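In this supplementary section we document a worked example of the pipeline. Step one takes a protein sequence of length 248 as its only input; no multiple sequence alignment statistics are reported here. Step two produces a three-dimensional model, which step three serialises into structure tokens for compact storage. The input and output of this example are shown verbatim.
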Amino acid sequence: MTQKINTIIDRPVTDLRHFTSVLNAEPQVQHMWTAIREKTYRDPTDGLLRIPARKGDIPMAANDDAVEWGSRGRYEVPFFPNLGGSTGRYRATIPNLGNVVSVLLNGNVSQGATEAWSLRWPDGSFWWFQPNRNGSRATANNGSHWDFTANPSPFDQWNFNAVVIDFAAGQIFHSLNNGDFDQGVSPSGGTISMPPAGDVTVWMGEGTPPQPFAEGRISDLAIVHGDVRTMPELMTAWNEYNQTAYPG
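The serialised model returned by step three reads:
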């Protein structure tokens, strides 16, 4: 007797496969981490958790053993409570970023003034990003803020944030959920300069100590060596992935 079995592949699986193929085909996406608890492991050298790289070969390392978890669909992803001192945060040190860098984030914030990620150099210089601050979005460079005009990340909702920092041109841009890119403006008249040469440490769930990521979750973070405004296929695929890849 012959049995015929029909297999239905639903939209989320299709989107996930499409996103993965686009991600792997884009050489400028050099580092990405999908922070699902079931994929983590403990490094025998220090016993702390590691989030393996989805692209690239550098894992995200837990800063301590105080990590917490929240839900995204049927998965557990890092939850960052309102604590200072880098408690429960993750970091990875990567090679020099070059003249233009884009940072892609899937996150869910519950309070304002959240610092979702930061880039830090050995000389103490830094950049960090707030998805929602006083009804806007903002980045900071060594204490100088750049504000964006509208559409901060809504609270208690998963959003896709893309930030482009053009060090050479002295400009910064932000897009929410694959919308138009706003150019940041510095109310204090701050300027953007080239960061020092050498490695940079990417922090997830924190900006600059002791300012914490005030209640939020992060599922995906990527570093792109280049301007994602020139990569529409990647941006569209990422936005679809953020909407459908974490079913309940």
